[in-house]
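Q: Could you fold this chain for me?
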Amino acid sequence: MLDYIGEIRIFAFDFVPHNYIICDGRRLSKTEYFYLDNFLGDKFTYDNSDPTTFAIPDLRDRFPKQPGETINFGEQKGADEVIMDMEQMPEHTHETHIVVDNTTGGDELVNAPKNAFLNNNKSNNEKRNFSINPSENTFLGGLTQEDVGNSAPINIKNAHVKMVFAICIKGKEIIDPKSDIEGLGFMGEIKIWPSTIIPRGWVLCNGESNYTVSNKTGMGSIIGDLYGTINKGTPNEKLLYPNFKDRFATGAKKIEDVAIKGGKNSVLLSKSSLPSHTHNVQLAVNNNTNSAPHINLPNGTFINRNAGMFSAEANTPARLGGITEENKGGLKEIDIANSSIGLNYIICTTGFMNPPPDIFYTGEIILYASNKSSYLEESYLSLCHGQWCDIRVNPALFSLLGTKYGGDGRTYFNLPDLRDRLPLCVTNLTEVGKYGGANTIQLTKENLPAHNHNVQLAANVEADGTKTEIPNGILNETSGKFSTKESESAYLGGVKETSFTGEKVDIRNPYLTINHFISTNGIFPPRN
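A: Sure. Below is the predicted structure, expressed as structure tokens.
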């Protein structure tokens, strides 16, 4: 087994092998680790207060992302949570109804038309008009609405499995990147690479190419045109390597589902993604028969029967007519870029076609760009699809993984499941094997910014059959007093709102799918 200084390996067990340290951003002596310092450079040293030391990459709870337009090499960006503001909340209003009973009254308010009108079935000499000024003869006065929302943080962490990302600090030096690197990898293998020094036989995963369609062996037979072509249909047609610029390396759902792109760094929420919520809307009333402010706000307020019947039709003597609500929200996108660090992805283009098992540690995770497993059948590599393994057949792997990824621990154990997930570096070793994050979220009303909608009662001041929007429509005393109890003579009963469906929101960051394998029978990792 050859370990190269500076290479990063991913391990599915809960310790760090000999000659490796976890990628935790620690500082090391430039004198003691002279070659590693030169290999990494200063891209991960964000504090230059101590010129005698340098820092290694800090991958704890950060996804590696190929530098591009959104992130630079060594840069740390993104977040695990976001808080929605008013402009990011989808613009919306609630359809609000006056709750009425057009039958004989009773215990249940059965009719809730969008616009309910109070008929003027009394003589015109008895004033029952609406006014915008309260007086001692008024009882109904406008509407109020409670706030909904608490600006609770929204967890945007993409689906992942916690594992150990470790960097080699002692091993073989890549002195001349132009020389052959013995045993570093096999064709189609992808590595997370913390340096701009790219060894011979490997290239950056930036979508470029240097092999042609006519090349039916080597890389041509392994990845073919999965990642696209250039100069298609010409003698110079070339096949492209994977392009991880600004993307994560997400596990394919099936082995053949590699090279699928998707995701985005921000989302514009729609009304359908609003969480199910309503605002408690109340009618302002005055039961004191004086000109005092309308201080009583019962949830269900009823107008007595002697005020007249209700109708869903507007007509000339109509006085009370429906409710309007203002829109709240905006069209601002929410940044959902996950915590990440700019690192290179490199792919092996000249190496083993059928890799020997002794170039991997047992329990090591391998990234593979191909949708073919035929080259790996004798390499003791298994897909990370959460499948179970017989303990008797795989005792070494079981001794490393145990039941961290599932299993009964007596006859079988499970491999990690990286389908539609990403491996993520632990913050401490006890986290190994923990699944977390999600690719979709469903908002709750607690995630919304605290807000309400200006609600107006539609009234008819002129008694001509039209509706006029006034901030506070006042119903005169001659229409009857209000009660907070239902009875056979009750016809107006509070207000209710429609709600929303709360559809799920896709929060996957930009990704490119590949296959993840685990070494089931390689070199047993020595402990530090």
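A (continued): Helices lie at 34-40, 219-222, 395-401.
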